[in-house]
């Protein structure tokens, strides 16, 4: 899932095209370059104006040095052609920089275009290409000083100033390139961090829905076990009085209706979208008609036992907690689920056996829950089970900081014992 989400993430080049240099864009089909933006046009105009300005300064110096008219005309034509060639700097920056370095060696008017081309290479190409173009531009400066000497600066002065200009443009271009790469890297990290945050939120929502579904599974198993007990009683006592038959069928109808509602809630949780819009009626599943339905706590334990007694079970409660309302809600709810699952298993595997429930503890000692039952009576109705309920309860008790033990008792019955911390 994470790989699929990574493919759907917006890439920095696509999300922020103004950060992507036009020279590194792929050419469009049909031979045209990448579509130029308003920013590209502005940069091109500034570069052309800079190259023309440097070329005009070189032409003025040539006139002051009494250069022949034909040489001055050729120099100006070469400078104009070099400025026009800057239109190709986004598609072939390295090749253009090499060519303009050679031209600027004999034509000072092309020096401005050569500097712009070297700057473009430094912005858009790796260091190897920058080293080649910059090296040729550096070599062209002393050659130009020999071919077209400047009487005011001399050979060393003209060469030093030309090399300094080349190094300045290349350094500036490399700075712009590193800054763009840094901004792109930060943007990419921000996009990935946002996608990972969405993944973590989705995973948390999924885990919450699964937890709710497991809890509803316990409730549903309890309801269905009641149905099986009452249906088994009707099957084995067809001669029961009409009043008892009516009472049993009423309990079956009510339990079946409640089981259908619980099943609908479980399915709603599993089908709910990530935002929780489909979790109506599910405890703890967000907004909805039943989202704020109170969860059972230790104070509701007596009602649970009364419900089991109405189903024909013999249940004995030894409540040693002075005030169940003082037990923290999370601890009491876990204890309630332990007793509920133990009663469900007793109805399944030991029908007719008396179940003993002992609940005791204090804030200093923690809360202890003990559910025991002897071996089931012969001839009862046994319901198959998967054992997933006790596994889920063990995990739930462990997550709450407690422990749960279950297994055969020495007298041949079954025992479930849990201990939970009592937060103050």
TrEMBL record:
It catalyses: ATP + protein L-histidine = ADP + protein N-phospho-L-histidine. One of its GO terms (molecular function) is kinase activity. Residues 274-293 are annotated as: Disordered. Keywords: ATP-binding, Kinase, Membrane, Nucleotide-binding, Phosphoprotein, Transferase, Transmembrane, Transmembrane helix, Two-component regulatory system. Residues 38-180 form the DUF7134 domain. The keyword Repressor does not apply. Residues 209-273 form the Signal transduction histidine kinase subgroup 3 dimerisation and phosphoacceptor domain. The keyword Repressor does not apply. Its EC number is 2.7.13.3. InterPro entries: DUF7134, HATPase_C_sf, Sensor_HK_TwoCompSys, Sig_transdc_His_kin_sub3_dim/P. The chain crosses the membrane at residues 41-59, 96-122, 153-175. Residues 275-289 have a biased composition (Gly residues). This is histidine kinase. It comes from Streptomyces blastmyceticus. The lineage of its organism: Bacteria, Bacillati, Actinomycetota, Actinomycetes, Kitasatosporales.
């Amino acid at each position: 899932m994470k790989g699929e989400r990574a493919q759907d993430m917006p890439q920095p080049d696509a999300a922020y095209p103004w950060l992507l240099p036009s020279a590194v864009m792929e050419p469009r089909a049909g031979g045209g370059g990448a579509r130029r933006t308003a920013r590209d046009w502005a940069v091109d105009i500034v570069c052309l104006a800079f190259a023309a300005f440097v070329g005009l300064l070189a032409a003025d110096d040539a006139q002051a040095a009494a250069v022949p008219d034909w040489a001055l005309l050729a120099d100006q034509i070469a400078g104009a052609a070099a400025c026009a060639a800057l239109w190709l700097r986004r598609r072939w920056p390295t090749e253009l920089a090499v060519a303009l370095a050679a031209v600027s060696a004999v034509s000072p008017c092309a020096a401005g275009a050569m500097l712009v081309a070297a700057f473009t290479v430094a912005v858009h190409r790796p260091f190897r290409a920058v080293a080649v173009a910059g090296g040729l531009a550096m070599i062209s400066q002393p050659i130009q000083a020999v071919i077209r000497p400047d009487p005011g600066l001399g050979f060393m002065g003209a060469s030093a100033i030309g090399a300094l200009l080349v190094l300045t443009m290349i350094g500036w271009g490399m700075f712009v390139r590193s800054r763009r790469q840094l901004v792109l890297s930060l943007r990419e990290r921000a996009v990935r961090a946002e996608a990972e945050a969405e993944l973590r939120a989705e995973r948390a929502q999924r885990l919450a829905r699964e937890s709710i579904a497991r809890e509803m599974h316990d409730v549903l198993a309890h309801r269905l076990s009641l149905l099986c007990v009452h249906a088994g009683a009707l099957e084995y006592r067809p001669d029961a009085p009409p009043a008892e038959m009516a009472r049993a069928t009423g309990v079956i109808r009510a339990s079946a209706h409640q089981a259908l509602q619980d099943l609908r809630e479980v399915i709603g949780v599993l089908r709910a979208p990530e935002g929780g819009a489909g979790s109506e009626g599910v405890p703890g599943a967000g907004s909805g008609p039943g989202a704020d339905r109170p969860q059972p706590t230790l104070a509701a334990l007596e009602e649970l036992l009364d419900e089991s007694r109405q189903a024909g079970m013999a249940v004995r409660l030894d409540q040693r907690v002075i005030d169940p309302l003082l037990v923290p809600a999370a601890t009491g709810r876990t204890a309630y689920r332990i007793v509920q699952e133990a009663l469900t298993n007793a109805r399944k595997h030991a029908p007719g056996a008396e179940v003993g429930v002992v609940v005791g503890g204090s804030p200093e000692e923690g809360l202890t829950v003990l559910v025991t039952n002897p071996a089931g009576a012969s001839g009862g109705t046994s319901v198959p089970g998967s054992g997933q309920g006790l596994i889920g309860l063990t995990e739930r008790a462990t997550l709450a900081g407690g422990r749960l033990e279950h297994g055969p008792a020495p007298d041949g019955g079954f025992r479930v014992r849990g201990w939970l911390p009592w937060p103050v």
